[in-house]
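Obj: model holo form, ligand = FE2/S2 (inorganic) cluster.
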Amino acid sequence: MPTQNTSLPSDDLPPGMVCAVQAGELRLVLWRDADGVARAAEDLCPHRNVRLSGGYMTDGNLTCPAHGWEFGPDGNFTGSPDPSAEGMCLKMFAAREENGQIMISIAGPAVG
Ligand code: FES
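Output (holo structure tokens):
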């Protein structure tokens, strides 16, 4: 289990942006949901392991650049109906924002 947490300045993640951060050997994708809450997940699409950090936002959902699958704030697939996407979800990690910093905890079990 990875044990290295990471953080970045809040200003580095404006609404609508998707970015990658490294936490030890684990690469994370960060975005803000429709309410502006910072979210963090492993930077891999569960469809074909494409980096989600190359993706974009669609109506507050993180969207994979390869085939357009969308994931909501809890990491669950939420895009257009696709039988092969049933039950797909991202490996989420706890992110909290405080004093101008977004802190991501990967020390515990993934959330979501
Ligand atoms: S690899 Fe992400 S939707 Fe296909």
